[in-house]
Amino acid sequence: MPKKRSGGGQSPTQQAAKFLGVSVLAGAVLAGIALPAAGALGLAAKGSVQGFDDIPANLKRPPLSQRTTILDAEGNQLAQVYSRDRTVVELKDISPYMQKAIVAIEDSRFYQHGAIDLKGVLRALNKNATSGGVAQGASTLTQQYVKNVFVEEAGDDPTKVAQATQQTLGRKIKELKYAIQVEQDLGKQRILENYLNITFFGEQAYGIEAASQRYFSKHAKDLTLPEAALLAGVVQSPSRYDPVNDEAEATKRRNTVLQRMAEVGDISRAEADKAKKAPLELKVTRPRNGCITAVKDSAFFCKYVEKVFLNEPVFGKTRAERAKIWNQGGLTIRTTLDPQAQASVQASLKQHIYQSDPVASAAVLVQPGTGKIIAMGQSKPYGYGKNETEINYSVGSDAGGSNYGFPTGSTFKPFVAAAAIEGGKPPTQEYSSPYKMPYPSPVQACDGKRWVNTYHDNVENESTSEHGPYAMKEAMAKSVNTYFVQMISEIGLCPVTTMTDKLHVVQGDGKKLPQAPSIALGAVGISPLTMAGAYATFASRGTYCTPVAIESITQKIGGQEKPLAVPKTTCTRAMSEKTADTVNTLLQGVIDSGTGQQAGLSDRDNAGKTGTTDERKNAWFVGYTPNLAGAVWVGSATQKVKMTDIRIGGVMHGLVYGADVPGPIWRDAMTGALQGKPAPSFNLVDIPDADKGKNQDQDKGKQQNQGKGRDKGKGRRGGGGDGDNGGGLPGGTGLPGFPGGFIQGQGGGTHGNGNGGRHG
After folding, report:
1. Which of 131, 274, 576, 723 is 20 to 30 A distant from 496 in Cα terms?
2. d(Cα 183, Cα 106) in Å, to the nearest integer?
3. Measured over all CA atoms, what is the biggest interatomic distance in the chain, rounded to whole angstroms?
4. How far is CA 510 from CA 151, 295, 504, 565, 567, in A?
5. For residues 461 and 401, what is the distance between their CA atoms, to the nearest angstrom?
6. Single pTM value for the model
7. How far is CA 124 from CA 30, 118, 366, in A?
């Protein structure tokens, strides 16, 4: 090392350059001899430089991250998601102009030298020593490729990225050793292919195919000479030479590349001069990354698919493993989304609920017997602006939905009926069903526990004229609250929660349902997807199938594609066929002559149930045909809007009922989804009508029904409504064994009945 002179001496950069040059020229690097520690030269922090032989022999080349494409059930693209927008292509699918341009401007002696260009190193050393800094680099394409591998491996971790790009002698030595290995293992053509696929071209485009699409909306194989020269020039500084933001600077850089191509003999002077005169003629395709760009109003379904991938152990033992695969991308995910059904759901939502309305709606359709989610939509689109939301109202909190789901009102009553019938209660079972009564107490729960009405709370029906005795068919059609409270008090809470466990009915936060009689009246928050899946069990005659959104996945790694295992639906028997058939008969009565007449389909067998909750904060319709089930919720996500004297979808409503807002949404969504599809029939059972000798008319308060003719609306009010009422327990009082106000997120609302008001 030269002696220092007063007022001068070599700078650390000059020392590093000289050291590296001498090592290279002496053959130390090429021979694999351990290099001396750099700490003595003051070039790097202690421990930052390894001996040459200490560096691992093989460069880990992680699969390049690529874009993931999400498709519907028919193979149509819904969205593309990626951490890095890249599509790996083979060298034969890259324009020869592009191959020549990148070599000419980045490493013109690429095919003449090995991993290290000794001539280039000497030239750079001389230039840098003269300038006193780093005026010229000497990295070959192979070395640049190795550095890009380090960056790719670092992912989005800023600390790791900084380490992968830091200007230290240690990193340079590591880069040199791996460059030697890569040259031996891959050869020139494969290195060039890998380099063009890994490098960053600006505007979020990684690799030449993504860059070609971004700037010129064409494939890399179709790039012309001027286009290829432009992209080759961008690589050195994607921000400085960005043609989108600085056309003049990009043009100058392009022309420099063309000049260099002519100098090395890749093109003639005439070709270069002609290309320099060509306008840029950009045809920019803006980045469309993420579910927010999904077509067919499928953004929420797209995000649901992403959540499923990150949550399902089939894709990796830990969330970190699954996230790594997702971020690596290269996936083609075919989903269960049916384009006809999705279009029908969204058309119905837009017709009946405006985006600007003070309330929102969510609808989800599930195929009985397969669990396939064929449609998922909501009235407020995915986004971050006014009247937009990132929350998927159709699903639970683990899948990006609301924290607690939404209270379901009387749509829960069929679960109570199913539990009773499965336990041996006949569908002709009668209860006194008074207009108003205290919650029966005590009520038997699971594990020998009992629920006790400590606060002496009452439950009541719609109006004073609505009182029993009632049998199950009429009680279900009218949605009689006291009937189902009496039923649950007789059979106990455990059979009901056992049934809901089999139907996978849980609260929106994933917790099991509380054991309290008020669950019979829909006090607990549940997601629409959970409700649709449970009702699909009735449609499939008692077989519950877990909801699924993914049909198949293939993963592209390099040029190879392989299939990935995907979560399959698990189907189990939740109730006997006879029980399911009986519930279907009961719920068909709801649509034929009960609270759900406004929602019914006219061209096929269908059944369902309405529901509204306390203070009209939620309204539901959940229904099904033998081959499709669907749930529709309408309400406020904050649970602060009371749907009274409210305009929804341009229509004024004094009181909102399950039948008159959610019902028509369900009807129109199902009609379009099922158009052209088979219309199978239910296996109905004979349920004798009760003859009570009562004279009732819920509309006019007149005696019109003498105890007979209750089928198909005879003697009944036309277009009957929900029939739910608001006789719940006071909010915040709590139930024994449960915290006060257990409808989380509903503020000071009630948590007993949880229903809302009157027929209609």
Report:
1. 723
2. 17
3. 120
4. 40, 30, 10, 25, 19
5. 32
6. 0.77
7. 19, 10, 66
